[in-house]
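Check the record.
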Amino acid sequence: MAEEEIADATDQGIRVAVSGAQQVAEQVARAKLHRGEKEAAEAQRALQAQSEQTRAILGHVRGDEFWRTATPDSVTNAAVYGAALAPHDRDALAIYSTVREGAQARWGVDVDKIYGEHSGDLEAAAPAMRARLAAAMRDSLDDTIAAKREDELAAQSGLAADQEEALAQASPEDEPLRELHEERAEELHADEREHRGNADAYRADAAAAEMTAAGVHRGGDQARARTQRTFPESVTTSINKPGSQATKNRPARSTRSRSRGAELTR
C-alpha cells in the first residue's frame, strides 16, 4: 500500500480501505488455521502495514467532521472496516466501538443488532446497515425541518397581524370594522406565539440529540481503553481466542448504552 493511501482517512479513503482490511483479516485467519510460521509472519507484516491506515481512520471517526458530514455509506464503511480487523487490532476495535456508539446516539441505529441478524457476515450486513442509517438520518432531520417550518409560519402570522393592525388604525371612525381588524390581529399574534413556541420545542429536541451525540464522541477518546458489551458473533469468537491481539490488552467491559429519543410524532 502506498504511503499516500495509508494516510487517506477521508470517507472515500475508508471505502477503499475496507477491501484491504477484509483481505488482511482473511490472511490472518488463514495463518492461524494453518499454523505455518511463514504464513504467520506474512500475516503479521500485512497487519502492521494496515495499522497506520487503521490509526488514521480512528482519528477521523473520533472527529466532529466525520459525524457532521456523515452519510449511510461513510458510517457503514467505517463500521465494516473496524469490525473486520477488531479481533486483531485494538485501534480497529476502537473504530467499531466509536461508530457503534455514534450511530446509536445520533440515529438510534443498533449496529450490533444488524450484524447479529446476518450472523456476523460483514458483507451481508452492510446493505441492511446502509438502508437503516438512511431511514434514520432522514428521521433525524425532522426536528430541524419542523423548527424552520414553524419559524416561517410564525413570520407569516406576524406579518398578517401587522397588516390587520394597520387596517384597524386606518378605520378610526368605523368602529365595527376597526374592532374586526383588531380581533383578527390578536388571533394572528396568538398564532405567531404558538408557532414560535413550537419552533423552540423542536430546536430543543434537536439540541438534546446533539448534546447526547457530543457526549458520546467525547467519551469516544477512551474507546481504545475498553471493549463494549456486545460484538458480532464472528468478531466475539475471534477476540476471545487465546493470543489474539485484542485479547492481550482487552479491558473491562462497559455496560453503558445509549438510545436516541422518541421519533418525531408531531
The mean pLDDT is 75. The beta strands are 227-228, 253-254. The CA atoms of residues 105 and 259 lie 5 Å apart.
